[in-house]
Amino acid sequence: MSNERSYETALKRSDEIRADLNLHPEAYTMLTGDRPTGRLHLGHYFGTLKGRVELQNAGIRTHVLIADYQVITDRDTTEHIQDNVYNLVIDYLACGIDPNKTMIYAHSAVPAANQLMLPFLSLVSEAELQRNPTVKAEMEASGHELTGLLLTYPVHQACDILFCKGNVVPVGKDQLPHIELTRLIARKFNNRYGKVFPEVDALLSETPLLPGLDGRKMSKSYGNAINISMTEEETAKRIKKSQTDGERMISFDPEQRPGVSGLLSTAAICTGRTEQDIAAEVGMGGSGQLKAYVTQAVNDYFAPIRERRHTIEQDLDFVKDVLHEGNRRAAALAEETLAEVREAMGMVY
Length: 349
Ligand code: TRP
Known about the structure:
The protein is mainly alpha-helical and 349 residues long. It has helices at residues 3-21, 42-57, 81-94, 111-115, 117-121, 126-131, 133-142, 148-162, 176-193, 232-241, 258-271, 275-282, 286-313, 316-344; strands at 29-34, 61-66, 102-106, 168-171, 201-204. The chain has two domains: 7-207 and 316-345, Rossmann fold; 220-313, Tyrosyl-Transfer RNA Synthetase. Helix 3 (81-94) crosses helix 13 (286-313). The radius of gyration is 21 Å and the shape is globular. The structure holds tryptophan.
């Protein structure tokens, strides 16, 4: 199937699921996660965190994974990993992920899930792995050589999804090849050994990707992202430093005016207004006035989240408890699935 065809198919499935989620929440298990490489930013918040909280509150089984082993797919160090992991948990909790409803865990703490890697690797060919466009893109972006882990991490991601029998995975379009591979692995396993795993579908994001303050892709390395964890002053400073252009009259034009437009999109998503509306209001006020508006919009929106974050941060024991409890639950779930897998394979002695 061509990429466009499979995108159309995935989008149709995703829309069907979205329509059914609230009617049959019990039929769905959502799994998604993040690499603990730094603090979460506004792109993460509006692109996925907000949606996870909505799914959690709709009564769907929700699992959030801290993909710590994935950190070493394209980097040679685990520097700051403990701090990053704890802060990820803090970001989750501050944004409304409720540990009584959602299982939060790190995949390195779930040995039985990792063991699924062995049978799963036998179900994919080297050519299938080499063809994965996401792996290629990540390799090029990171400048890292293609290690065995980078080549096979989509298989590991299938372990993440299938150990808990996840059947919906919120992703962006670029992650679809991973979902396809997960489906292939589940199907092949079921055909060879008997049905253990569900059909997995992508839940495609409905909101367009929020650009960074300069209009480019939001990324920590571009310095164009506002982190959830920033203070009001840090937020103001980052916005003040962002690049605009010489034209005084503010208008929304992502192609010709990426800086001004990135700022407008940030304000729009935080206020629920349109970019055009905000542009018209600021008008000849220029980028100074626009930046003041954006700063206020971001700081107002995130004030309660940051206040919660501040409180949670003071209680690291609580944060650790949340993670340990999630790890414990995930490990128990993984043991059950692994037992089914070994049973299906006849590896019972
Ligand atoms: N690849 C995701 C990221 O880079 C993290 C991740 C790991 C994930 N395993 C997953 C996401 C399984 C969804 C499903 O942020």
